[in-house]
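Figure caption, in words: inputs first, then the predicted bound structure.
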Amino acid sequence: MRRTGISRRDLLRSTGAVVVAAPLTGFLAGCSFTQPGTGQPNSTVDQIKRQGFARVAIANEPPYTKVNADGSVTGVEPDVVSAVFTMMGVPTIQGVVTPYESMIPGLNANRWDVIAAGLFMKQSRCAEILYSEPDIVSTESFAVPAGNPRNLTTIADVKADPAIRVAVLPGGFEHGVLTTEQLPEGQIVSVNDGRSGVEAVLAGRAEAFFLPTLSLSALRTDGIEITGAIKDVQPTGAGAGFRKGDTELQKAYDEQLAAYKQTPEYADTLAKWGFSADDVRGVTRDQLCAVSG
Ligand code: 6CS
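Bound structure (6CS present):
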């Protein structure tokens, strides 16, 4: 994927992936294209091809999504989405950083065209948006104090002790796991991002921070230990997220994604961020959309 060093001033004139702050996106969201002569709104596919860029929701949670110092957007999901959009004739993605809980509402409010954040598939989300076929699968872990003094390795361990408080991102997949397991609200601590989550554990405000294994590893925090994959959490995997009405975009994207997944670049891109293309082989959207929650 092409990345450019770019000032905020040149945001709208660049190619490659750039970050557009929400207010600017408000401006972009005001851009609407209609078919010449008919006044009929273009499909999203027509619109992003015509404008030459797609607005994508990201979280800035490496290695899933990352905003570089120059404002360019990368991470495994934007890199895959950018490569597939380039194959579709859309050379640029423009990232908008937003919390996971806002991604689907913002998509449906037309604030962005696609979710490219590693928003894991599960029943409730698959009921609200269209996903592409999966491009990544991954595991979940706890960040705990070094030595794991309470020996927390599973959700069952958390449920067994009412004194255990778990930090999660509000509306994130992990929050959904805990509510599906009916963990009392008093055992759930909301934090805004990865750094706040590990700090909550270090400060004794939570006994564990629940987040994807690779995201916790990327945080590299002294005094924190990361557990192995939590065995009693269902599989997590993601792809691009589209509006329910964008079936044409989903179909066109999936066709190119299938071709891209056959290339060495796909495997190299995943490996660069710590993921394995082999882990995705044979995993389908339908399987991941069956995950409860
Ligand atoms: O899908 C989600 O909600 C989760 N996905 C990632 C990549 N990080 C945390 C978030 O809760």
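The longest strand covers residues 53-58.
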